[in-house]
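Task 17 of the worksheet. Students: predict the tertiary structure of the chain below and write it out as structure tokens. Keep your answer in the requested format; marks are given for formatting as well as content.
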Amino acid sequence: MNHLRPLLLLALVLLGSADSLTAAAPTTVTPQQLKRYVDYANAHTGDARAWYDLAIAAKRAGQTDVEKAALERVVGINAMSAKAWNNLGLLHFKLREYPEAFDCYRKAVTVNAKYAGAWSNLGNTCRAMKRYNDAEEAYKKATTIDPRFAGAWYSLGNCYAAQGKYPDARECFLAAVKIEPTYSRAWYGLSLVRKALGENIEADAAMKRAVQLEPNLAK
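Model answer:
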């Protein structure tokens, strides 16, 4: 079984951060439209909503620097905006600025202790920093707040798998696919840990389901 671990860890590393970020917003904001958001925000410097709207527009325009600056203005005006702290954390995570992302997510859950998404994102950041105990705690917070948060169960499964805790990982992946039966990557993770546990028939069935849902996983 031990010879499977390096392969398992590699496969999970390749998939592991996919759940860390929200899907990219479509690039539908033109430079001219973005300039109008910039001008409006500059004319309403104390309006957190204006800066938040600019951040959303900048994200859609693919202007990371503008988005980051706008979100920093939002939390500077309103430090009690858990959503803005979370979004700023997502941006830092995307840039692999993990300590900064960690700080943002901690602020988000301090403002709103019931923010399951921010707890899960905090877990992703701790996992990226190999702080597995902290990651486990954050994911468990997320799943306690929202027991039907399939993404948090999947991420907790990846966290356990990265440490070789395959029975725990299996239970998390099973929880994820029970909640969301079309969660292809959770099926894939389930297949890998079941293979590592010697549950070959079940592993093959999980892999078949994963590939049915997402054929690229077979490559």
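Marker's comment: The two ends are 23 Å apart (CA to CA). Residues 4-218 form a domain with the Serine Threonine Protein Phosphatase 5, Tetratricopeptide repeat fold (CATH 1.25.40.10).
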